[in-house]
Design a protein that fits this description.
The structure is a single chain. The chain is mostly helical. It has 2 domains: 59 residues, Arc Repressor Mutant, subunit A; 136 residues, Tetracycline Repressor, domain 2 (Orthogonal Bundle). Helices cover 72% and strands 0% of the residues. Helix 5 packs antiparallel against helix 10. The protein is elongated. The N and C termini lie far apart (69 Å).
Length: 211
């Protein structure tokens, strides 16, 4: 197989911007088509980046996929779901409820039809590639750990019942959120998403301390 040339000097005048454009386009492509069906040609067409510049930043399609998880999907999940729980004086139950409501209200039917990109990749790639599996598990573990830590603080402050097993509950919450989106994606139904979200919110309310 012929070697794909690296970017020529001066071809990639703004490397950081080029990398950002490629990651964003690749994230959209992977979210829409999955990793295995993702097309580098479509990514190059969307960004206007040359093939040489692409391979300068990402030596292979697999490297690009890993970077999308590490540098795009990961930070996006942190911003939306983990950062709101890390304020020390935040009521964790209310913070989770607000994030669920905000995310559900913001999600369009087009976004819903694509599902959660992290869960999509986990289902597609974890059985076939250790690199994806390890990255996605680390990301999901960080999400579970953030919820567990927030609930632990809530127990210490007295807003969360002392009977709550924070690690089990955190795993259940993440699984429930992914399940809600997955079912609504399959049904193409915002109504189902809202109903599932309401059930999860009712469950979260049951975690509050009654003292």
């Amino acid at each position: 197989m012929a070697m794909i040339p690296s970017a020529k000097p001066g071809e990639d005048k703004n490397p950081l911007e080029t990398r950002r454009l490629l990651l964003e386009a690749a994230a959209r492509e992977i979210h829409m088509h999955g990793f295995q069906a993702a097309s580098l040609s479509r990514i190059l067409s969307e960004t206007g980046v040359t093939k040489g510049a692409l391979y300068y930043h990402f030596p292979s399609k697999l490297d690009l996929g890993y970077a999308v998880v590490d540098e795009y999907f990961g930070p996006t999940l942190h911003h939306a779901w983990i950062d709101p729980l890390q304020q020390p004086d935040t009521d964790p139950v209310q913070a989770l409820i607000e994030v669920i409501r905000k995310t559900g209200n913001r999600m369009t039917i087009a976004e819903l039809s694509l599902g959660c990109p992290v869960n999509n990749l986990a289902l597609e790639m974890s059985p076939v590639d250790a690199g994806f599996r390890e990255r996605l598990e680390q990301l999901l573990d960080e999400w579970r750990a953030a919820i567990a830590a927030a609930l632990e603080r809530g127990r210490d402050f007295g807003s969360v019942s002392p009977a709550v097993d924070v690690n089990s509950v955190a795993a259940f919450i993440v699984a429930s959120l992914e399940g809600c989106v997955g079912m609504a994606k399959n049904a193409q139904s915002r109504k189902l998403l809202v109903a599932c979200g309401k059930g999860l919110i009712d469950y979260l309310q049951s975690l509050r301390s009654r003292g």
